[in-house]
From TrEMBL:
It comes from the Bacteria. Residues 15-102 form the PIN domain. Pfam families: PIN. InterPro entries: PIN-like_dom_sf, PIN_dom. This is Putative nucleic acid-binding protein.
């Protein structure tokens, strides 16, 4: 789904994520045997829907992630894959509750908890 910015601009807003997100999100509902949530995550990220574009983890993304890790020792490989995916997809913002991501990118990282998310939503509307 491509969203339009309300008011200030008619530029489209697209949401993208790495395939890795699906594995990260599925752990808890699988552990909790929450099949409805497993299905919801699968539909959102692997169902071919329009809400979020799921970017495959390519060799180029892995090479970029290695470069990011080489320069930012505080990051883990999954963090670097997410940053590399965002950069390859020409994202302008990252939404994440993982504060470590900020050290691996020049992109603004908006915290999905608390005031950052509210400020992000306000900025985009």
């Amino acid at each position: 789904m491509v969203l339009q910015r309300a008011g200030r601009s008619n530029l489209p807003i697209a949401s993208v994520t790495s395939e890795l997100t699906l594995a990260e999100l599925l752990v808890k509902p699988i552990r909790d045997r929450d099949e409805a949530l497993v299905a919801a995550y699968n539909n959102l990220l692997a169902g071919g829907g329009e809400a979020v574009a799921t970017i495959p983890i390519s060799l180029d993304i892995l090479r970029d992630a290695a470069r990011i890790l080489a320069h930012h020792k505080g990051l883990k490989l999954p963090d670097a894959i997410h940053v590399a995916t965002a950069e390859r997809a020409s994202c302008t913002q990252i939404l994440s509750s993982d504060k470590r991501l900020q050290s691996g990118t020049r992109l603004p990282v908006w915290d999905t908890h608390g005031a950052d998310l509210a400020a992000f939503i306000e900025m985009m509307s």
